[in-house]
Structure formats: structure tokens, C-alpha cells
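User: Hey, quick favor. My workstation is busy. Could you predict this chain's structure for me?
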Amino acid sequence: MVQITVIAAFLAGLLSFFSPCVLPIIPGFLAYLSGVSLQKHSTTEHWKLFFNSVAFVVGFSSVFALLGVLLNTILSGISLQVQSWLSKVGGVVIILFGLYMLGLIKPKFMEVEKKLQVTKTFSVSYITSFVFGAAFAVGWTPCIGPVLGSVLTLAVVSPGESLALLLMYSLGLGIPFLLMGLFSDHAVQWIKKFGKGMKYFNIIVGVLLVVLGVMVFTQTLLLFANFNYVFGVLGG
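Assistant: No problem, here it is.
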């Protein structure tokens, strides 16, 4: 199950980055934290923005890694029967997240938008970017919540792989952040082009989450893992 779920967690990180409520604000947010302009800037300012992006990514990755360790420590000793029930409950939760993304259900608690609010009352530094990265990890927006919630559910269902899952989620979310910081001069134009397809984002993600939820509920992911294992043995 490790290979399948780890890939799913990495893709979930990418989906979180490209969500309609996050992608458009990222260039301005990174520039704001770095204290530089989004317009063409000097080489020094360019690398300042990039390294602040690195600190930001390290910040939220550290929180996710800590959460993975905690889940592994707390849940790794549970019995197989409990894990089976967790799979069923987790599958239902992920399916509900998918239905929410499709707009078929609208629970009020998920409609309340919670996201990182920044006011210019601090001096720019890498430590500041790290702190805001950590705060970003515990932030919540309606379009990130279902994806991150699904990864956390997978981590609970598979506590032995919780650290790997959350690190891969951080990697999927972090790599685009770093690329955005590195190529900030072209980021705004690229986002405008990409934004044309944003209207299909929720539908695609919703369908993927429903499929993933069904696989978790029926423990089909485990069958895929066993198939990969047998195939590897035969091929080796």
C-alpha cells in the first residue's frame, strides 16, 4: 500500500497548490513575505525571494512531518480489526470530501473560510517566512481542506506510513512553491494562462477523491499493494 498511497499523497500536494483559492495569491504572498516587488527585480532580490520561499516550505513541511510522527506513535500499535474499521470510516470521510468538491453537499463548517492573514507588522527575515509556513500548515481554506483532509485520513488509516504520506504531501506542495519563487518574474503571466482551466478543478478533484474513498473503504488499495508485491517477486 505504501507505493500507491505515497503517490496519492504527492499528487494531493500538487492539487493543493493548484487549487483556485491558493494559486492566484501565491506570487504576491511570497513577494510580500520577502519584501520585494513582483515586477522585475535585481539578482539579489530574486534570490532573496527564492530563499524566503525555501524557508516557507521548510516551515509547513516541519509541521506535517511532526504530525506524521505523532500519528505513527499514537496509532501504530492498533489491532488489524481496528485498522479495518478505520479504513471504512476513513473511506466514508474521503468520499464526503469528494462530494463536497463536486458541490453535491455543502456542510456549513466547511464553507467558513479560514486562511492565513498577513499584516505588515514584521521585519522580513527567513525566520518570519518559516513561521508563516508553519502557520500555513494549520490554516484552512474550503478548497484545500478536502484534499489535505483526505491525506490526513489516509495517514490515520495507515499509521505506519503516516510520516511518509505527509512528507510526500509536503513535497508535492513544496516543489511548485520553490519553482514559483525561482521563476517569480514569469509566475503571474503563467497563472493567468493556467487560470482558464480552473473551473474544472473542483470536478476533477472531487471525482478523484470519491474514487480514492471507495478504494480505501473497500481496502482495494491493499489489493493493489499485494499485486505490486507479487509482480515484483515474479519479476525479480
